[in-house]
Structure formats: C-alpha cells, structure tokens
C-alpha cells in the first residue's frame, strides 16, 4: 500500500463544477458534487444551519496541530455560530481565504451558501497512529453540535473571548 495523499490528482482541487472523468479522482469529485447538489436542493439558500465541515489531516508539519481554512465566498458564510463552534472545538488557528479555490468547502460555500470550513485535524499518519487525545475537544464539540436541539449548539458560545490566531 502506498502512503500518499493521492495517486493521479489532488481531489481537493477538483471542485470547480464538472470534471472530465479521466481518472478515479475526477469521477469521485463529480459524484460528491452531484450528491451535494441533491443534499442542498430542498433547503433554503440562506439557511444559517447549512454547514459543511470538510475534515482532513495536514500532509505537512504545521505550527498549529489543528486549523481551519475558511473559503472565500461572495455569500455570507462566516457566521458567528460557525466560529463559535471552532472556539468550542479548540481549533488553534483560522486562515481566511481571499480568493476562490476549487476545494470541497469552497464549492459548498460558493454555490450553496453553506457555512463551510476545511478543517485540518493533526498530521497525516498511518492508520491508527494519530494522537487522537489531542482531538478530544473537537470530538466533544462535534458531538454537542449534532446532539443539541435546534440552534443551541450553534450559538452557545457567542460573545466569549477567542484565543485564535487569524492568519491572512
């Protein structure tokens, strides 16, 4: 088994609408885009509960063990509840993109108004060798997000002081 991120193409650069289906990565990206279109088809475009968290492990060492990339979008996709979730999850840094990039989170933000982030959670390692204890705050925040009724989980930290480092 090869321990590398991709074989033919970096799939996280294929979310710019339909791709020529020249390899398994482009086929998968097209499938994910079609599934996302179907998923969001019945929801209101300006629904603040429309979230997309694209979870990854960083392929390189980073000063920050956890960080988020907020994709550029002309839609209002950087809400206080979304950033409050990152604070509760103890995500260390947030990078704010200032131009479009064909990532999965950008696709959902730009085309469907989703509150979206690409989240880098630790560094890629062979299966079972990640330091999961360092991700416990993220796990707890995610669990609260999906089990707390209505808007409570997405607004329970509004107004609290942040410890983030914003990187431009």
From TrEMBL:
Describe the location of the Succinylglutamate desuccinylase/Aspartoacylase catalytic domain by residue ranges. Answer: 2-144
Q: What is its EC number?
A: 3.5.1.96
> What does the record give as cofactor?
Zn(2+)
Keywords (alphabetical) are: Hydrolase, Metal-binding, Zinc
Record carries keyword Metal-binding: yes
- Official protein name in the record: Succinylglutamate desuccinylase
User: Is the Metal-binding keyword given for this protein?
Assistant: yes
What species is given as this protein's source?
Photobacterium aphoticum
Transmembrane region(s):
none
Q: What InterPro entries is this protein classified in?
A: AspA/AstE_fam, AstE_AspA_cat
What does the record give as the organism's lineage? Bacteria, Pseudomonadati, Pseudomonadota, Gammaproteobacteria, Vibrionales
Q: Which Pfam families match?
A: AstE_AspA_cat
Q: Which GO terms describe its molecular function?
A: hydrolase activity, acting on ester bonds; metal ion binding; succinylglutamate desuccinylase activity
Q: What class of enzyme is it?
A: hydrolase
At the top level of its lineage, which domain of life is listed? Bacteria
């Amino acid at each position: 088994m090869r321990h590398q991120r991709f074989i033919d193409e970096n799939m996280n650069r294929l979310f710019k609408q339909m791709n020529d289906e020249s390899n398994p990565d482009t086929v998968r990206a097209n499938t994910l885009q079609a599934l996302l279109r179907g998923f969001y088809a019945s929801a209101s475009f300006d629904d603040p509960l429309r979230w997309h968290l694209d979870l990854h492990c960083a392929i390189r060492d980073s000063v920050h063990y956890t960080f988020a990339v907020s994709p550029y979008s002309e839609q209002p996709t950087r809400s206080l509840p979304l950033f409050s979730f990152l604070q509760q999850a103890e995500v260390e840094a947030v990078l704010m993109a200032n131009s479009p990039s064909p990532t999965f989170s950008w696709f959902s933000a730009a085309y469907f108004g989703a509150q979206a982030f690409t989240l880098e959670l630790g560094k890629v390692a062979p299966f079972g060798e990640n330091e999961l204890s360092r991700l416990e705050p993220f796990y707890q925040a995610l669990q609260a997000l999906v089990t707390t009724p209505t808007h409570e989980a997405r607004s329970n930290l509004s107004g609290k002081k942040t410890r983030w480092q914003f990187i431009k």
